[in-house]
Amino acid sequence: MSFLQFFVWGAWLITVGNYWFATKQWSGAEFGAIFSTLGISSIIMPAITGIIADKFINAEKLYGILHILGGLALCYIPMVDNPTTFYWVIFAAMLCYMPTISLSNSVAYNILKTNNFDVVKVFPPIRVWGTIGFIAAMWLTNLSGNKASANMFYISAVSAVILGIYSFTLPKCPPQKLISENATTAQKLGLDAFKLFGTYKMALFFLFSMFLGGALQLTNMYGDVYLSEFGKIPEYANSIIVQKSTLIMSISQISETLFILAIPFFLKRFGIKQVMLISMFAWVLRFGLFAYGNPADGLWMIIMSCIVYGMAFDFFNISGSLFVETTTDSKIRSSAQGLFMMMSNGFGAFFGGLVSGIVIDKFFTQDGVRDWHGIWLSFAGYALVIAILFAIMFKHKHDPNAVANVSH
Fold first, then answer.
1. Using an 8 Å Cβ cutoff, are 173 and 60 in contact?
2. Maximum pairwise Cα distance, the chain
3. Cα dist. 253→29, 38, 142, 145 in Å?
4. CB 216 within 8 A of CB 344
5. In order of start, what are the domains of the chain with their CATH numbers?
6. Coil, strand or helix: which one is 370?
7. Mean of pLDDT over the chain
8. Could you give the CA distance from residue 51 to residue 322 in angstroms, rounded to a whole number?
9. Is 0.85 topped by the overall pTM?
10. What is the DSSP string of 3-21?
11. What are the tens digits of pLDDT across the range 274-308?
């Protein structure tokens, strides 16, 4: 389940830019809107599907239905011949897919707990197969010659339908009815966590989560396109960077699995604020190395950028989640975690996708040629400003005992 969950995503997420720009030759501003659908879906759907799974239908069945519907939407994408229709179809697919990320965790936890497994010990090795699935899909799309073809969507669609059908064979995860019958609408939707914005520290944390969340999808959106467009320069046309761009990008996901193992040490040694700052400066490095890299003497910069990605991505997401875990009341902890995801993967991804597409199209594209050096430097500058402001404005005293308690 975990393998296929992220295989569905990895088959097209990193390479869709090649399909959009090289195959369809549509504009960059509209492309940014495509990635904003991930953010909108992350804002709308998880709370709704969570209520449905908690009160009305088995989680594994809802999970399967969503994957089958999402697969059908993905199947239709290759038939689309204009960017507006593409937007609405991919939006429909994301409305089905994004809530399955949290549902897959719910299903896994339910099955493991029902069978008396130690979730803390058993779940992480299972979740790693999700990253392996994402990498495998990227490799399959590239090695099969489909990193710029519509076939990437068929690969994703078929795997989604297979996962959807398979889900009905999983152990039953009946509605838990964890939400009180007397709960208000705000409580059911997790909106009571919004009172956290009433405190300076938490409001600042969520605001920076949104700003940094805007950077999270930038390399997913443009990384593979950037590497592939080195092919327009004759001396680089046959380089491994161009021919196997998706495989090179997959180093980022491989790095991600390794940095997960380093998080406990860094958190205990430096604390959550410092780890999040490390993440922010890692984003500066990620974008800066891309700005100066090339397939020849700058190859090491591209490789190093992909390695740094693991630290940039994991240190922000895991440490941010732990900060919420250790500083919020237990009564609203789950909805507070949802709020963190809403601000970073929801609003952050939405505005990041939308604004970056407009900025690149207006300031860094001339006669269809993109100034990648300028694009990546502007992204690096953005991450640097966020890091400096966070270091100055965010106040948090490190408590090693709190981190140790959560990790156990």
1. yes
2. 68
3. 27, 19, 15, 21
4. yes
5. 1-171 (1.20.1250.20), 190-408 (1.20.1250.20)
6. strand
7. 85
8. 24
9. no
10. HHHHHHHHTTTTTHHHIII
11. 888 999 999 999 999 999 999 999 999 999 999 99
